[in-house]
Design a protein that fits this description.
Layout lengths: L4 H4 L16 E5 L3 E8 L2 E8 L7 E6 L4 E3 L2 E3 L9 E6 L3 E6 L2 E2 L4 E5 L3 H10 L3 E9 L6 E4 L6 H11 L4 E3 L3 E2 L14 E2 L2 H9 L3 E7 L2 E6 H9 L3 E5 L2 H9 L5 E6 L3 H11 L4 H17 L8 E4 L3 H13 L10 H4 L4 E2 L1 E6 L3 E6 L3 H4 L4 E5 L4 E2 L5 E8 L2
Helix pairs in contact: 7-8
Bound molecules: adenosine-5'-triphosphate and the ligand Nc1nc2c(ncn2[C@@H]2O[C@H](COP(=O)(O)O)[C@@H](O)[C@H]2O)c(=O)[nH]1.
The site of adenosine-5'-triphosphate has 14 residues, from helix 3, helix 7 and helix 9.
C-alpha cells in the first residue's frame, strides 16, 4: 500500500485528501521521522518521533470526515525518548506502544484515546484529550490510603511503619499550599508550593486527587504515588476524607483505612499538645474533624476503621491489617522484572487479549527467548496512573 507521507504529516506541507488506511497500524519512515498511523473509526492517530534521541513522541489526529488535523491535549508523562517503537490497537480504546532500546520492564506503554478517563477529561477541558499510562508487569502491591481527623495520629503511625520497614513501604509526598512547620523539609514531608502553581498542575492532569483542607490546597500527584511503586515499595498516602473519596473513584486500586480517636476530647488534647497550630486553626481543624468522623462510615468508602487509643496497640493492628494484603509475586514474570538489559522487541501478532512480541536481536545468545507472549486479559488501573496486570512469558 503506497502512502504519500506529505499527505499524512502536517509537518510536511499541504494535504489534499484523507489517506485511506486498510490495516490497523502503518509504520511510515522518512529521513527524519518515524510515524505510526492507527485507525479508530473516523480518526487516524499518528504517533511520530524524530530521530533526535532527545525529542519525545508527538501525537496528531486526522479527522477523516472533515479532513482536518487535531493536536490533542496530551495528559500524563510520555515514555522517555528512544529511537523507535512498535504499536498496536487494543480494544479500540488504547494504543499499545512497545519502546525499543530500553529494559523490557520499561518498554510497555499505553496511549489512551477513548477510555472513560480520557472521555471525562475531554468533557472537563472541552478539547480532544489523549493520555499516557505506563504498563506494569504484574499487579504490584496495592497502595494504602490512611485518613482520619487532624491530630488523630496518622503521621505518627506512618512514621513508625517507615522506620521499621524502610524497604517495604514508601510515603506519597503530597503537595500543599500551607506553610512548612518548623521541622518539615520540602520534598520529604510535603512539596510546599504556591496556589497558582498547584492549580496549573492540577489542570494539566498531574494530580491523582486534590482537596481544599483547613483553608489550604493539598494534593497527591500521580508522580508521588508511582515513583514509590516504581521502586517496588508499597505506597502509603496520608490524605483527608475528600481525597480518599476521589482516590476511591479513580482507577487506582487501594486499601482504605480510617483512623479514629478514642474520643473527641482526646483528639483536641493531642492537637493542642502538638503545638503546631494557632488557636484559630485548631478550632477550624476540630470543626472539620466532626465532619470527617461522620463520614468515616460512608458505605463503600473505608475498608477498615482503626482506633488509635494506645499507640503501640494501634500500630500492631495496622501491621496485622497490612499483612492481610501481602501480595505474592507472579513467578512467571520475575525473569523480566529486574532486568536492566535493553530489549528490542516488536509486535508480531495480536489476538483479543494476547500479543506476541518478537525480538529483533539474537536473544538465544543471551540465553533468553526470541518470542514473548504479553497477556492483556487482566489489566487494571490506567491513566492517570499506571496500567497494571500485564503478564509476560516466554513462548517455547
Ligand atoms: N495513641 C496516641 N496517644 C497519644 N498521643 C498520640 C497518639 N498518637 C499520636 N499521638 C500524638 O498526637 C499528635 C498528633 O499526631 P499526628 O501529628 O501523627 O496526627 P495526624 O493525624 O498526622 O495529624 P494531621 O492530619 O494534622 O497531620 C502528635 O503530637 C503525636 O505524638
Ligand atoms: N486530600 C488530601 N489531603 C491531604 C494530602 N496531604 C495531607 N492531607 C491531609 O491534610 C490534613 C492536614 O494535614 P497537615 O499536614 O496540614 O496537618 C490531614 O488530614 C492530611 O491527611 C493530600 O495530598 N490530599
Amino acid at each position: 500500500m503506497g502512502h504519500d507521507l506529505r499527505r499524512l504529516c502536517p509537518d510536511h506541507g499541504a494535504f489534499y485528501e484523507a489517506p485511506e488506511f486498510r490495516v490497523e497500524s502503518v509504520a511510515l519512515e522518512s529521513k527524519d521521522c518515524l510515524q505510526n498511523a492507527i485507525d479508530i473509526g473516523d480518526k487516524t492517530y499518528v504517533i511520530s518521533r524524530s530521530d533526535d534521541p532527545k525529542s519525545s513522541i508527538t501525537i496528531k489526529i486526522l479527522d477523516k470526515l472533515t479532513r482536518t488535523w487535531v493536536v490533542p491535549t496530551v495528559l500524563g508523562a510520555p515514555p522517555n525518548p528512544t529511537s523507535s517503537h512498535s504499536v498496536v490497537l487494543v480494544n479500540n480504546e488504547k494504543i499499545l506502544i512497545i519502546e525499543k532500546g530500553v529494559p523490557l520492564k520499561d518498554s510497555i506503554w499505553f496511549l489512551e484515546v477513548d477510555t472513560p478517563f480520557v472521555k471525562q477529561q475531554s468533557k472537563i477541558k472541552g478539547t480532544v484529550v489523549v493520555a499516557w499510562s505506563k504498563g506494569v508487569i504484574g499487579e504490584g502491591q496495592k497502595p494504602v490510603v490512611i485518613s482520619g481527623p487532624s491530630g488523630v495520629g496518622k503521621g505518627t503511625l506512618i512514621a513508625k511503619l517507615m522506620k521499621e520497614y524502610p524497604s517495604k513501604f514508601g510515603f506519597s509526598v503530597s503537595h500543599t499550599t500551607r506553610a512548612p512547620r518548623e521541622k518539615e523539609i520540602d520534598g520529604v514531608h510535603y512539596h510546599f508550593t504556591e496556589r497558582s502553581k498547584i492549580e496549573e498542575e492540577i489542570s494539566e492532569g498531574k494530580f491523582l486527587e486534590f482537596a481544599h483542607v483547613h483553608g489550604n490546597v493539598y494534593g497527591t500527584s500521580i508522580e508521588a504515588v508511582e515513583s514509590v511503586t516504581d521502586e517496588g515499595k508499597r505506597c502509603i498516602l496520608d490524605i483527608d476524607v475528600q481525597g480518599a473519596r476521589s482516590v476511591r473513584a479513580s482507577s487506582l486500586e487501594a486499601i482504605f483505612i480510617f483512623v479514629c480517636p478514642p474520643s473527641f476530647e482526646e483528639l483536641e488534647k493531642r492537637l493542642r499538645a502538638r503545638g503546631t497550630e494557632t488557636e484559630e486553626q485548631i478550632q477550624k481543624r476540630l470543626r472539620n474533624a466532626r465532619a470527617e468522623l461522620d463520614q468515616s462510615n460512608s458505605p463503600g468508602l473505608f475498608d477498615h476503621l482503626l482506633v488509635n487509643d494506645d499507640l503501640e496497640a494501634c500500630y500492631e493492628n495496622l501491621k496485622k491489617l497490612l499483612s492481610l494484603y501481602d501480595d505474592h509475586e507472579d513467578s512467571n514474570d520475575s525473569f523480566i522484572k529486574d532486568g536492566k538489559e535493553t530489549a528490542c522487541y516488536s509486535i508480531l501478532s495480536k489476538t483479543n487479549s494476547e500479543i506476541l512480541l518478537q525480538s529483533e536481536t539474537n536473544e538465544a545468545e543471551k540465553g533468553t527467548t526470541n518470542l514473548l507472549s504479553l497477556d492483556l486479559s487482566s489489566l487494571s488501573g490506567g491513566a492517570p496512573g499506571r496500567t497494571r496486570g500485564l503478564k509476560i512469558s516466554p513462548v517455547n
